[in-house]
C-alpha cells in the first residue's frame, strides 16, 4: 500500500526496485493521464452547459444593467394619436430605432407581454376581424375564421408557449481540435427595427401572424399592410394602437391615400435592420433591389405557379376534390393554390369527370353571396374589366383602383383565351364571370404547356389541367419553369412520389393533399428561387427574425503552457512542423 504522505522521490525509488514496481509506475502514470483527461472532459461539459445559461440570463432577464427602457428622444410620431403621414415616415423610423435601442423589446417578459396583448387583441375582436375581411373580400366566414383568425391565434399561442425554448442560446457540443478547449453556442440576436410589408389576400394572417414572430425574436416592427383591403388594414392599425405598445409595433399606411407604393418606397429609403416582404414576385424584385442598395437583409415570401402531379395510381376523386377546393379558396387568390394539374393521360377523362363533380358539389352557385370569395377590389374597380383595350395599359402604379382593374382585366383576358381555345384549351367546367361583382366561376380547363394560361401566376379560381405521358418528361418540364412556392403529389406509388420529390424544387410539398404543409405548425413555410427566400412559422419565425450569432469561448484556465489555449502553430511563419500540425488539426475540427 502507498501512503499518501510518502515523499514522491522515496515512492519512486521503491517502485523502481523491481520490474513489478516499474510496471506500477507506468500504470500509475497512465491512470493519472486518463483521470486528468476525463476530468477535463467533465469540466468542459460543465462549462459548455453553464456558459450559455449565464448568457441566457443576461439576454432574457430583466434586461441588461443600466437600461431603463426610456427613450433618448421625445417622440413626435410614434404613440401619438394621429396616424403617421407620408412626411412622418423618416421621423417614425428614427423613433422606432431609438425605441429598439432603449432595450424595450429585448427582455423575455416584455416580448411575452406583447404576444399576450396580441392574443387578447384577436380574442376580443373576432367578429370585427371576420367582418372586415368580409367587407374587403366577401370571403365565406369559415375560410376567414380558419386562415385569418385561428391560424394567427395558434401561431401567437405557440410563440407564447415556446418563447423561452426557441429564443435561448443553443449549445454546440461538437468537438474541434482547433478550438479545444472551448465552449460554443449560437445566440439569437434581434435584428432591430424590422419592416413588414403585407399583401391583400390574407390581411391578418400575413401581417399580424408575421409580426408575432418578429416580436418573439426581440425586434420592434413597422407594419405596412396592403392598401387593397382598406377595412382590414384600418382595423389592424386601430387594434395595434389600442392593444400594443407603439414602440413595439406601429402600423403605417392605411390612412395614407393611394396604392401604398409611395409609403413602401419611403420606408425602404430609411435605415432598417430587416425587411420581411410578402407579395408578388414583380414587387418582390423591386423590394430586393431597394434593400440591396442599403445592404438590408430581407426575407421574400412571393408567389408562383404551383403544380400538382396526379399519376395513374392516384385516388382521383380525392385529387380532384382537393384541387377544386384549393383553387377556389379565397377566389383563387392564394399563393399556395394548386394552379395546374399534370394528369397521367390514362386517367385524364376520369379526373375531369371528378373535377366537374366536385366543382358542382363544393361551389354549386358562385354568384350567391358568401359561396366563394370575390376578386379583390370587387366593390370598387372591376366593373370596367370588360372595357376596351386601353385599360390594358392601366399600370399598377396608377393607384389602387387601376391596379386592381388591371388584375381583373388579366383574368378576363385569360378566360377569353380559354374560351377561344386557340392553343388547344378546352373548358371543362365554368369559364364565366361577372366582373362588376368580382365573381369568377370556378373553372377547369385542359391546356397545353404553351397556353397563355400557363405563363404567369393567375390569382383567380382557374385550374389548368395538362395531360402527360411520361413522368420523367413532366418533371423535366416543371424544372424548366420558375421554382414554385408549393408542389402537390397524388399517388399511391412510392417510386413515382420519390421521383417527383427528387426531380423538382419547390418551397414546400404536400403528398395526397394540397395546402396542408402550410398549416402544420411544426414545419417552416417559405419559397425558393423565384418564389422567395427565407421561411417562417413557429420556431422558424424566431430564426427568421434573429441573427444566429455563433459564439465561442476559449478556455484560459488550463495552465497548459499555451499548447491548447494559445497554439503556437497558428502564427506564421509556417514551417514544416507548423504546417503538419495545421493539417492534423484541420482534419479534427
Ligand atoms: P403586391 O406585390 O401587389 O403587393 C404587396 C405589398 O407591396 C402591398 O403592401 C403593396 O402596397 C406593396 N406594393 C405594391 N406595389 C409596389 C411597388 N411598386 N413598390 C413598393 N411596394 C409595392 O401583392 P398583392 O397583390 O397584395 O398579393 C398577391 C401576391 O402576393 C401574389 O403574387 C401571391 O402569390 C403573393 N403572396 C405570397 C405569399 C407567400 O407567403 N409566399 C402569401 C400571400 C401572397
Structural category: alpha/beta
Strand order of the largest sheet: 10-13-14-9-8-15-16
Fraction of residues in H or I helices: 40-55%
Number of domains: 3
Mean pLDDT: 88
What is the count of β-strands?
Answer: 20
Strand content: 15-25%
Question: Which key terms come to mind for this protein?
Answer:
43% helix, Aldehyde Dehydrogenase, Chain A, domain 1, 3 domains, 20 strands, globular, 6-stranded mixed β-sheet, alpha/beta, 589 residues, Aldehyde Dehydrogenase, Chain A, domain 2, 18 helices
SSE layout and pairing:
Blueprint: H1 8-16, H2 19-60, H3 89-101, H4 108-123, H5 126-137, H6 141-167, E1 170-172, E2 182-190, E3 193-197, H7 208-216, E4 220-224, H8 230-243, E5 249-251, H9 261-268, E6 274-278, H10 281-293, E7 298-301, E8 306-310, H11 316-328, E9 338-344, H12 348-362, H13 400-420, E10 426-429, E11 433-434, E12 439-440, E13 443-446, E14 462-468, H14 471-479, E15 486-490, H15 494-503, E16 508-511, H16 516-519, E17 525-526, E18 532-533, E19 535-536, H17 539-544, E20 546-554, H18 576-587
Parallel strand pairs: 3-4, 3-6, 4-5, 6-7, 8-9, 8-15, 9-14, 13-14, 15-16
Antiparallel strand pairs: 1-2, 2-20, 7-18, 10-13, 11-12, 17-19
Helix pairs in contact: 1-2, 4-6, 4-7, 4-8, 5-6, 5-8, 6-7, 11-12, 14-15
Bound molecules: nicotinamide-adenine-dinucleotide.
The site of nicotinamide-adenine-dinucleotide has 31 residues, from helix 9 and helix 10.
Amino acid at each position: 500500500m502507498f501512503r499518501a504522505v510518502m515523499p514522491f522521490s522515496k515512492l519512486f525509488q521503491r517502485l523502481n526496485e523491481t520490474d513489478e514496481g516499474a510496471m506500477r509506475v507506468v500504470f500509475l502514470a497512465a491512470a493519472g493521464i486518463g483521470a486528468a483527461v476525463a476530468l477535463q472532459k467533465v469540466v468542459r461539459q460543465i462549462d459548455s452547459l453553464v456558459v450559455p445559461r449565464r448568457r441566457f440570463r443576461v439576454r432574457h432577464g430583466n434586461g441588461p444593467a443600466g437600461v431603463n427602457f426610456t427613450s433618448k428622444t421625445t417622440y413626435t410620431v410614434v404613440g401619438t394619436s394621429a396616424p403617421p403621414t407620408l412626411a412622418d415616415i423618416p421621423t417614425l423610423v428614427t423613433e422606432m430605432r431609438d425605441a429598439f435601442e432603449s432595450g424595450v423589446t429585448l427582455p423575455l417578459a416584455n416580448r411575452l407581454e406583447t404576444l399576450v396583448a396580441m392574443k387578447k387583441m384577436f380574442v376580443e375582436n373576432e367578429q370585427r376581424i371576420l367582418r372586415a375581411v368580409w367587407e374587403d373580400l366577401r370571403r365565406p366566414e369559415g375560410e376567414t375564421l380558419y386562415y385569418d383568425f385561428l391560424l394567427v391565434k395558434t401561431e401567437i399561442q405557440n410563440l407564447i408557449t415556446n418563447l423561452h425554448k426557441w429564443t435561448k442560446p443553443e449549445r454546440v457540443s461538437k468537438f474541434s481540435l482547433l478550438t479545444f478547449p472551448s465552449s460554443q453556442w449560437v445566440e439569437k440576436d434581434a435584428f432591430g427595427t424590422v419592416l413588414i410589408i403585407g399583401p391583400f389576400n390574407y390581411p391578418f394572417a400575413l401581417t399580424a401572424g408575421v409580426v408575432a414572430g418578429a416580436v418573439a425574436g426581440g425586434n420592434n416592427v413597422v407594419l405596412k399592410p396592403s392598401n387593397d383591403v382598406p377595412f382590414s388594414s384600418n382595423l389592424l392599425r386601430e387594434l395595434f394602437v389600442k392593444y400594443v405598445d407603439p414602440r413595439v409595433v406601429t402600423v403605417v399606411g392605411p390612412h395614407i391615400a393611394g396604392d401604398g407604393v409611395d409609403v413602401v418606397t419611403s420606408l425602404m429609403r430609411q435605415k432598417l435592420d430587416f425587411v420581411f416582404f410578402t407579395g408578388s414576385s414583380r414587387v418582390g424584385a423591386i423590394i430586393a433591389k431597394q434593400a440591396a442598395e442599403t445592404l438590408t437583409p430581407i426575407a421574400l415570401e412571393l408567389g408562383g405557379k404551383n403544380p400538382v402531379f396526379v399519376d395513374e395510381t392516384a385516388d382521383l376523386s380525392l385529387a380532384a376534390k382537393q384541387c377544386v377546393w384549393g383553387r377556389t379558396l379565397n377566389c383563387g387568390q392564394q399563393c399556395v393554390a394548386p394552379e395546374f394539374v399534370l394528369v397521367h393521360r390514362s386517367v385524364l377523362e376520369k379526373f375531369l369527370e371528378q373535377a366537374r363533380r366536385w366543382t358542382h358539389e363544393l361551389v354549386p352557385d358562385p354568384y350567391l353571396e358568401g359561396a366563394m370569395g370575390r376578386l379583390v377590389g370587387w366593390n370598387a374597380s372591376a366593373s370596367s374589366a370588360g372595357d376596351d383595350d386601353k385599360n390594358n395599359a392601366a399600370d399598377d402604379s396608377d393607384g389602387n383602383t387601376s391596379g386592381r382593374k388591371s388584375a381583373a382585366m388579366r383574368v378576363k383576358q385569360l378566360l377569353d383565351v380559354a374560351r377561344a381555345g386557340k392553343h388547344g384549351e378546352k373548358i371543362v367546367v365554368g369559364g364565366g364571370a361577372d366582373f362588376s361583382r368580382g365573381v369568377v366561376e370556378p373553372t377547369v380547363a385542359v391546356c397545353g404547356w404553351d397556353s397563355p394560361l400557363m405563363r404567369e401566376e393567375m390569382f383567380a379560381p382557374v385550374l389548368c389541367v395538362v395531360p402527360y405521358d411520361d413522368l420523367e418528361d413532366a418533371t423535366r418540364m416543371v424544372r424548366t419553369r420558375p421554382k414554385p412556392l408549393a408542389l402537390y403529389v397524388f399517388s399511391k406509388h412510392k417510386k413515382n412520389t420519390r421521383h417527383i420529390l427528387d426531380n423538382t424544387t419547390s418551397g414546400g410539398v404536400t403528398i395526397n393533399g394540397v395546402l396542408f404543409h402550410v398549416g402544420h405548425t411544426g414545419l417552416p413555410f417559405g419559397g425558393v428561387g423565384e418564389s422567395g427566400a427565407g421561411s417562417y412559422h413557429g420556431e422558424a419565425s424566431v430564426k427568421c427574425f434573429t441573427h444566429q450569432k455563433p459564439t465561442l469561448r476559449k478556455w484560459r484556465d488550463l495552465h497548459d503552457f499555451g499548447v491548447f489555449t494559445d497554439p503556437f502553430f497558428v502564427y506564421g511563419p509556417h514551417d514544416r512542423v507548423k504546417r503538419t500540425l495545421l493539417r492534423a488539426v484541420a482534419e479534427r475540427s
